[in-house]
Specification:
Layout: H1 3-15, E1 32-37, E2 40-56, E3 59-63, E4 68-73, E5 80-81, E6 92-96, H2 99-156, H3 161-215, E7 217-219, E8 224-229, E9 236-237, E10 242-247, E11 252-259, H4 260-263, E12 271-275, E13 283-290, E14 300-307, E15 318-335, E16 340-342, E17 346-353, E18 356-361, E19 363-367, E20 371-375, E21 383-386, E22 397-399
Parallel strand pairs: 1-22
Antiparallel strand pairs: 1-21, 2-11, 2-15, 3-10, 4-6, 4-9, 5-8, 6-7, 8-10, 11-14, 12-13, 12-15, 13-14, 15-20, 16-17, 17-18, 19-20
Helix pairs in contact: 2-3
């Protein structure tokens, strides 16, 4: 088509009132499509939230307390500990070669018997020495009586000098026998004391040997599940090595750290719910303890919660803990996604009035599962829940009906 023929066609179209070929009709007055819902009444709670890893309230780390070679591995990773039957030691974890320890105990017991036998000999010797002292003292009293009579006889001439000298010698000899017997008693006392010390030492060595022998049999002090096993039969272990960890999986606890302001709202007995991306469903529990002090390094307060067993929730799992500190049973709530926020004026909603979006400032309260408590609107208001971020105050809107429902224009 030639240019001379195109121009008359364009002029004819303009004369008929049609738009130019490249210009679209204006839709500035067309209502914007949105979805809206009316507020509802329901229970909503004030929630304090923190994250931490689950632990067990009862757990133990078992160390090697003696050196030795592992000759029996009774428990492995994941095995249950406790509840043995038919004489089985359910708390047994492993055994070490204890032959040298048994020999050491037998030698120590021999030493104890020898030391106790020596004590009996010394005690018998002391009794004999005490008896010799008694006999010597009797002889001394008799000799002193004879000496006294001889001394009187010397005065009146009835006793000769030779008889007096014999009496004096007998008295002196009896005195020396008493002194010798007493010295023997004292020596026996010292020997008995030293023997008693030797017995105590021998018993201490024996008791120590018995303890070491007992430690060669490795047992768990609590029932539970083996969560760590560093034991292999035939390998040697050394004192201080970590051999096992045993935990009670049914006594789950969570230690969380809360800001001071949040912790002030939490009390023992508050309900707790847990969820994790690694586990299906939720677990629940209760707050057991709120620490009375603030941690200086983190500036937080430690909270302990007891958790009820639930599928998939096990020690070490990282979870989100939500503590319910208060609940309102009849709160006015809207979907959480409906809320908008202005840095200067704060939170607000859009409601539909007379076919237009009206901006309404609100106060927010407790937040529940996908809903938010608000003040500033009524139960009959129609709140924008989709498209509210694309409208402006006073803009015309068309409320789209929910699937299967007639449209609600908020008029």
């Amino acid at each position: 088509m030639s240019h001379s023929r195109v121009l008359p066609i364009l002029l004819a179209a303009a004369a008929c009132g049609g738009p130019p070929p490249d210009k679209k009709p204006s839709r500035t007055d067309a209502p914007l499509p949105v979805r809206a819902e009316r507020p509802s009444r329901g229970a909503v709670s004030d929630i304090v939230e923190t994250q931490a890893a689950l632990e067990t309230d009862r757990h133990v780390t078992v160390y090697a307390e003696v050196d030795g070679k592992v000759v029996e591995k009774a428990k492995d990773l994941g095995d249950l500990v406790g509840g043995g039957r038919d004489g089985d030691d359910g708390m047994l974890l492993a055994r070490l070669d204890d032959r040298e320890l048994r020999l050491a105990l037998e030698e120590a017991e021999v030493d104890v018997r020898n030391a106790e036998g020596r004590i009996r000999e010394l005690e018998l010797g002391k009794k004999l020495a005490d008896r010799e002292v008694e006999q010597a003292e009797v002889s001394l009293r008799e000799a002193e009586a004879i000496f006294a009579r001889a001394s009187e006889g010397m005065k009146d001439g009835t006793i000769s000098l030779e008889e007096h000298e014999r009496a004096t010698f007998a008295r002196n000899l009896a005195q020396k026998k008493v002194e010798a017997a007493q010295a023997s008693v004292e020596k026996g006392k010292v020997a008995l004391e030293l023997g008693s010390v030797a017995v105590e030492r021998a018993r201490a060595v024996r008791d120590r040997a018995a303890v070491l022998l007992e430690r060669a049999t490795i047992r768990s002090p609590i029932a539970g599940v083996v969560t760590l096993c560093n034991v292999r039969e035939g390998e040697r272990v050394r004192t201080g090595e970590v051999l096992y960890k045993v935990e009670e999986p049914d006594t789950l606890v969570l230690y969380g750290n809360l800001p001071v302001r949040d912790a002030a709202r939490v009390e023992a007995g508050d309900a707790v719910s847990l969820e994790s991306s690694a586990a299906e469903g939720k677990a629940k529990g209760k707050v057991e303890l709120v620490a009375p002090t603030v941690d200086r390094e983190s500036g937080t307060v430690r909270v302990k919660a007891a958790i009820e067993p639930a599928p998939g929730f096990r020690p070490g799992l990282f979870v989100t803990m939500r503590i319910t500190v208060a609940t309102r049973a009849d709160a006015l709530v809207v979907p959480r996604r409906a809320l908008l926020h202005d840095d200067e004026e704060g939170p607000y909603l859009f409601v539909v009035r007379d076919g237009k979006a009206v901006r309404v400032p609100v106060k927010t309260g407790f937040e529940g599962e996908g809903v938010l408590e608000v003040e500033g609107i009524g139960e009959e208001d129609l709140v924008l829940v989709e498209g509210q971020d694309t409208v402006s105050d006073g803009a015309a809107v068309e409320v789209l009906a929910a699937p299967g429902a007639p449209p609600d224009r908020g008029e």
